[in-house]
Each structure stands twice: as structure tokens, then as C-alpha cells.
Design goal:
Elements lengths: L1 H21 L7 H4 L3 E6 L4 H13 L4 E2 L8 E7 L5 E11 L2 E11 L2 E8 L5 E8 L4 H19 L3
Parallel strand pairs: 1-2, 1-3
Antiparallel strand pairs: 3-6, 4-5, 6-7
Length: about 160
């Protein structure tokens, strides 16, 4: 009997810890929870990513997207990390006798994209999500929005 109790306790403990961790999330800022209008600013140059964020966030039925920044409660800003993780380099050289002339170029490769949400009135940061860039812009958009969606929908506010 004691052995069975220990086995049950050990097998159920990870589930209890996971449930307890879920309840210990920091609350979302009121401005984010109660926002009605949003302005989407795309600083990535990737229109498919912006379209994916717009499409998925619109489907929640929570926010009205506006095209005039001054009419928004909050700003959704898509941007790349300022720090480059790697560089793609290319070069060429011409050899004539004992001399060589060459040129090269280095281009930063962006591995992450960020969704920053800010209060339009004062610029205060309300939320930031980070995602590796995935194949398919809608997958990246979904990763950026998934935790926020879950928290907003579970907050009960509309």
C-alpha cells in the first residue's frame, strides 16, 4: 500500500508543479487587457509577417485595427533584434601574377523577430514576445501571439 502511494505521488507531482506554475504568472497591464484599438507598425520589412500578425490577432475579435496611430490605445510593433547573430559573407578576388585584388561584403542574418506592445500615449512597454524566424510567416506570427492570446482570453476582460 505504501509503495502504491509513493508511485502515485511521484507520478502526479510533475502535474501538480505544472498547474502551480501556471497560476503564478505575472498579471498583464490593465492598458493591454482593456485596449480596444491597435495600430500595427511593421519595422521588419516583411509584409507577410505583418499580414500574419494582423490576420491572427484580428481573429480574436478583441481589437479593432486602426490606420491612424493617434486613434490607437496600444501599438503593436514588429521589429528585428538589434544584435546580429551571424553574418553571410561573399567575396571575390582576381589574381594577376603575384598580385591579387578582391572585394567582399558581410550581411547580417536575422534569426529573431520581436513583437513589442506599447502604450501609445506614453510609450510604456506593455508586452514583448520573441520568436525565431520560422519557415512560413504565419508560423512566426503564431509563435509571437500564442502566449499573449492565451493570457488575454483567460483574463476574462473584453
Amino acid at each position: 500500500m505504501n509503495r502504491l502511494a509513493v508511485i502515485l505521488l511521484v507520478s502526479l507531482l510533475p502535474m501538480a508543479v505544472a498547474l502551480g506554475a501556471e497560476a503564478k504568472r505575472a498579471p498583464l497591464p490593465d492598458k493591454l487587457v482593456h485596449a480596444k484599438t491597435v495600430y500595427l507598425e511593421n519595422r521588419t520589412g516583411d509584409q507577410k509577417l505583418a499580414d500574419g500578425v494582423y490576420s491572427q490577432a484580428s481573429a480574436w475579435g478583441r481589437w479593432e485595427f486602426v490606420t491612424d496611430r493617434s486613434k490607437a490605445d496600444i501599438l503593436l510593433v514588429l521589429s528585428y533584434d538589434e544584435n546580429s547573430v551571424a553574418f553571410v559573407t561573399a567575396g571575390s578576388a582576381t589574381v594577376v601574377g603575384h598580385s591579387a585584388i578582391g572585394s567582399g561584403v558581410g550581411i547580417p542574418v536575422q534569426y529573431y523577430v520581436y513583437l513589442h506592445i506599447a502604450d501609445r500615449e506614453n510609450g510604456d512597454a506593455l508586452w514583448t514576445a520573441k520568436s525565431r524566424i520560422k519557415v512560413g510567416a504565419s508560423r512566426t506570427a503564431g509563435t509571437l501571439l500564442s502566449d499573449l492570446k492565451e493570457r488575454l482570453l483567460s483574463s476574462g476582460a473584453k
